[in-house]
Amino acid sequence: MKYVCPCGYEYDPEIGDPDNGIAPGTAWEDLPEDFVCPVCGLDKDAFEEA
What we know:
Layout: E1 3-4, E2 10-11, E3 48-49
């Protein structure tokens, strides 16, 4: 499952976000609670499952 921010940024757990220090295979639930969208800065609560 992927997670999409309203700004269009998509978090795919299989890919992670290596540019921002999130290793491939990092589950959404395992992201830090203070994770924010690297594009617009919204927090995890703003993301929707896709």
